[in-house]
């Protein structure tokens, strides 16, 4: 019975299928082996294997068995179907027409070509290891656009938001001539400068804007060979030559350790005319001269006059100090351009006949190192402008030849300077080597104790020291507020979020407490920047030079600091709104007054990010929106970004203008959702070339 059961088991379908598969496999293996031994076909190469022990296998490296057909030639024409595309190509390449083509094939492939030269684009080298020795690559082709000056037209959405109004045709803007690649409209107005009655006081270095019908109407091009700027902090020490292709400053100041050219870069050793051994050592010396000069604590906001390439301000950044570096566009006209390319805060500005565009009591320290300014001319009117901007109890550091040289002319200049500062009630707290440091009084006691006939006099009570837009200099002393406002700013970083006293002096319609408005704005922007960091990956994109075009109390810039983004922000306070500049400086931030109906005083390709919240819905009543957008394009770097947070009513027109300028834009909902009255327009500027 058991035997019969075994036989019945062998007859089951599962066993039959298994046995069939086994015998078929053996048959295929046998025929395949016989077939591969035929001389008509080339054998494959197999890794050898042996029945050696595991220990032997681990000790002996793997070997390769070569085909016995090595070095033989074969006729492959029989393997190709006549009439096929491959056959036709081979036939036309054959030599005698009567004989079939023969191709010599060897099993040994030719040696591989040498590896191409590796171009470094990041900080991982060719061996896969992290390295600080890397180069920034050229622009991604996706960020380079062909832009022909042929007056071509483009299609854009028109009518209602979202394109419901159909398509409209816009004529796109042309590229400006190459000669305008560093054009600053209000400082390069040759026609207006020629009409000036006098230029002896530096009038030609001040703002002279073109008439409205002669404003910028094209896209300022980048220099040939322009590359993405070197990222901070490396940019402090080197920039691409092609981005600022001017050698005069290197030729004139190379011996003073300012700047020199090396291959395709400019290098910045960190020196200056009076500190050729380096700005860092120079800063340490200043702080040792006066114990109260504690950079990053009591001293937070600094003005550097005649800054050169801004090495003084560049090295202060590592000490938690922000510096407004200023210089005119004079014979060394590219010094501010170098500073901005390095990623250091800077503006083109001149001490001439008008007030600088900064508020009273803005700076904790003002520095002038060989800044080539005659401080005692015209009853000391230029030093009086410094006095207006210097915070009560602030310091003025002067490094110049009259401080230390014993020549008759220079000694007379020193005596004049000493006499003027005494009349200004400044205290000479230290004179050491080539540096002299004065301190401004904390209150008006000294001013009121002077004789009635002492010059310069106090300014009239109706003079507003914060009125700076096209305001002439005045040869008078700006008295300090009797309530001490401005003098009692807290140390950094506490001052960033503390509502300052001068908040109460801002002329604005405020239903609720100004302190509550201040805190609400700070909280609002802190949440917004947090969402940008999370959703739009702001910490991963290139951000260094940032401009907030409508800054309010500086909440946007404060949030940038709080989120530790490695960039600096210049806060612009438009003339069309309340003057909040004193509050911005009391917080330890940088700012400037401006009218966006006119061009801005900076070089093309200055900023990585332009931020405009609620700007266009206000300025459209008084300014040409296309003029503002063209100015934004001028000062924005290729590869830079624009964030416009504004009313739906202006978005259509902004998108039309943006497309005509070649911007790549995305319209986004705010956090309030799709039914909110505001939208966010994010824009990318590409590198345009013809």
From TrEMBL:
GO BP terms, alphabetized: methylation
Pfam family, one: Methyltransf_29
Positions of the UniProt region annotated as Disordered: 85-116
Regions crossing the membrane: 12-31
Domain of life according to the entry: Eukaryota
Membrane topology: Single-pass type II membrane protein
rRNA-binding as UniProt keyword: no
InterPro entries named among the record's database cross-references: Put_SAM_MeTrfase, SAM-dependent_MTases_sf
MF term (GO), any: methyltransferase activity
Chief site of localization: Golgi
Alphabetically ordered keywords of this record: Glycoprotein, Golgi apparatus, Membrane, Methyltransferase, Signal-anchor, Transferase, Transmembrane, Transmembrane helix
Compositional bias per record (Low complexity), positions renumbered to this chain: 91-107
Compartment annotation: Golgi apparatus membrane; Membrane
EC number: 2.1.1.-
A GO cellular component entry from the record: trans-Golgi network
Family affiliation: Belongs to the methyltransferase superfamily.
Protein name: Methyltransferase
Phylogenetic placement of the source organism: Eukaryota, Viridiplantae, Streptophyta, Embryophyta, Tracheophyta
């Amino acid at each position: 019975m058991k035997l019969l059961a075994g036989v019945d088991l062998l007859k089951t379908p599962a066993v039959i299928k298994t046995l069939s598969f086994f015998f078929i496999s053996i048959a295929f293996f046998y025929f395949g082996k016989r077939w591969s031994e035929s001389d008509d076909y080339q054998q494959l190469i197999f890794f050898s294997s042996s029945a050696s022990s595991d220990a032997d296998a681990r000790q002996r490296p793997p070997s390769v068995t070569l085909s016995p057909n090595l070095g033989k030639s074969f006729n492959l024409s029989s393997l190709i179907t006549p009439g096929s595309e491959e056959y036709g190509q081979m036939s036309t390449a054959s030599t005698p027409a009567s004989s079939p083509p023969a191709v010599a094939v060897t099993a040994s492939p030719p040696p591989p070509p040498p590896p191409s030269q590796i171009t470094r684009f990041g900080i991982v080298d060719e061996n896969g290891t992290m390295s600080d020795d890397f180069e920034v690559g050229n622009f991604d082709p996706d960020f380079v656009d062909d832009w022909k000056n042929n007056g071509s037209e483009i299609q854009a959405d028109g009518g209602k938001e979202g394109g419901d109004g159909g398509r409209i045709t816009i004529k796109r803007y042309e590229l400006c001539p190459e000669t305008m690649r560093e054009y600053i409209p209000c400082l390069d107005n040759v026609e207006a400068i020629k009409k000036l009655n006098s230029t002896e006081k530096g009038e030609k270095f001040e703002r002279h804007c073109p008439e409205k019908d002669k404003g910028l109407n094209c896209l300022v091009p980048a220099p040939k060979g322009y590359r993405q700027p070197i990222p901070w902090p490396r940019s402090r020490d080197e920039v691409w030559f092609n981005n600022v292709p001017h050698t005069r400053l290197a030729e004139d100041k190379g011996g003073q350790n300012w700047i020199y050219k090396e291959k395709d870069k400019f290098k910045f050793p960190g020196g200056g005319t009076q500190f050729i051994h380096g700005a860092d050592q120079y800063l340490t010396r200043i702080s040792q001269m006066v114990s109260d000069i504690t950079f990053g604590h009591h001293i937070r906001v600094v003005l550097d006059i005649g800054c050169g390439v801004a090495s003084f301000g560049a090295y202060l950044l590592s000490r938690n100090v922000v510096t407004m570096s200023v210089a005119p566009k004079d014979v060394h006209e590219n010094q501010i351009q170098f500073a901005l390319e390095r990623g250091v805060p800077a503006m083109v500005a001149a001490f001439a006949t008008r007030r600088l565009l900064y508020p009273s009591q803005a700076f904790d320290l003002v520095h002038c190192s060989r800044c080539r300014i005659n401080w005692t001319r015209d009853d000391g009117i230029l030093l009086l402008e410094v006095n207006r901007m210097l915070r009560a109890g602030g310091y003025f550091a002067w490094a110049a030849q009259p401080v230390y040289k014993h020549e008759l002319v220079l000694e007379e200049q020193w005596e004049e300077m000493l006499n003027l500062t005494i009349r200004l009630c400044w205290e000479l707290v230290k004179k050491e080597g080539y540096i002299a440091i004065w301190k401004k009084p904390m209150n008006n006691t000294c001013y009121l104790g002077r004789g009635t006939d002492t010059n310069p006099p106090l300014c009239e009570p109706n003079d507003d020291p914060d009125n700076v837009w096209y305001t002439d200099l005045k040869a008078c002393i700006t008295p300090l507020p009797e309530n001490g406002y401005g003098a009692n700013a807290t140390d950094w970083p506490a001052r960033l979020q503390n509502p300052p006293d001068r908040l109460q002096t801002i002329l604005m319609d405020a239903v609720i407490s100004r302190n509550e408005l201040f805190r609400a704005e700070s909280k609002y922007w802190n949440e917004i920047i947090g969402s940008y960091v999370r959703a739009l990956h702001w910490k991963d994109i290139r951000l260094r030079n940032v401009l907030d075009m409508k800054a309010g109390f500086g909440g946007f810039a404060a949030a940038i600091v709080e989120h530790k983004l490695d960039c600096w922000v210049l806060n612009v306070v438009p003339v069309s709104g309340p003057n909040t500049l004193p509050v911005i400086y009391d917080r330890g931030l940088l700012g400037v007054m401006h009218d966006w109906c006119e061009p801005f005083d900076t070089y093309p390709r200055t900023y990585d990010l332009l931020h405009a919240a609620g700007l266009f819905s206000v300025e459209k009543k008084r300014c040409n929106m296309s003029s503002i957008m063209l100015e934004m394009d001028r000062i924005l770097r290729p590869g830079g970004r624009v964030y416009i947070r504004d009313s739906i009513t202006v978005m259509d027109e902004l998108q039309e203008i943006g497309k005509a300028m070649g911007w790549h834009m995305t319209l986004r909902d705010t956090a309030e959702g799709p039914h909110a009255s505001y939208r966010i327009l994010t824009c990318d500027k590409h590198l345009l070339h013809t």
